[in-house]
Amino acid sequence: MGVESWGGFFFLNLTPDEAQTRGHNLRTQLGGVPERLCRYPLEQLRSARRMVYEVSANWKVILENYNECYHCGPVHPELCRLVPAFKQRGGSELDWERGIPHREGAWTFTETGTTNRRPFDGLNDDEQIRHKGELVYPNFMISLSADHVTAYTVWPREPGHTTIVCDFLFHPSELARSDFNPADAVDFWDLVNHQDWAICENVQRGMQSRMFQQGYYAPMERASLDIRRYVGEKLGGEQLRGEK
């Protein structure tokens, strides 16, 4: 059927017979993601809020934005106050596998860096105070704090239009609390999201200029270049202009 699951998420392969022939399955697509996130109780989490964004940008632009943080300094002042590491060397030396440190005294993605929600059980010492993020090609982005997870599904609609479905996931034990309120995380993420979508739309407008032909990737953009290689492979392995 081409349907597989991981972490409570379902993934659909539209050409399962071809994928099986080529040895492509969800395990190979996920790579090291399950191991890196093995201590997060993803299958247990439930959505407390969903936001749907309509973004006037190509889906690949949105993935590239997620995969780099040299834009964070000028675009996300609130986020950089929470995570000063995003401003250091354009974010080029961030250790995403270990997780990104917050400012002193902060441990989650809210404006204050704290919350009354408890961290997930079973996280290691780093995961209790750091933030992780993963991109699963072609259209799934997941950001993980100690107490909540934000999952993005990216749906291309047209060359210049993308729908992004954002789910805010929490543990059932927190959802059951009489004082549960996800607003501190949701409002902070919504602010950051709108800032990201705005800059993606600016990039899209620049690409629509009659003067635009192609762009080149700097060394700090290796992760974004991976997206270009992924698309090139799906198009038959052709060399794409702009790659050095």
Description:
The chain has 244 residues and is α+β, with helices and mostly antiparallel strands. Helices cover 31% and strands 21% of the residues. It has nine helices and eight strands. The strands form two sheets. It has a six-stranded antiparallel sheet. β7 (149-158) and β8 form a beta hairpin. The longest helix has 25 residues, at 183-207. It is globular. It starts with a strand and ends in a 10-residue tail after the last helix. The model has no long low-confidence stretch (mean pLDDT 89).
The average pLDDT score comes to 89
**Termini, distance in Å?**
39 Å
Q: What summary fits the major beta sheet? A: 6 strands, antiparallel
Secondary-structure-based class equals alpha+beta
Tell me the helix content. 25-40%
* Fraction in beta strands: 15-25%
Number of helices: 9
Overall geometry comes to globular
Question: What would you say about this model in short?
Answer:
This protein is an alpha+beta fold and 244 residues long.
List keywords for this structure.
single chain, alpha+beta, two-stranded antiparallel ribbon, 9 helices, globular
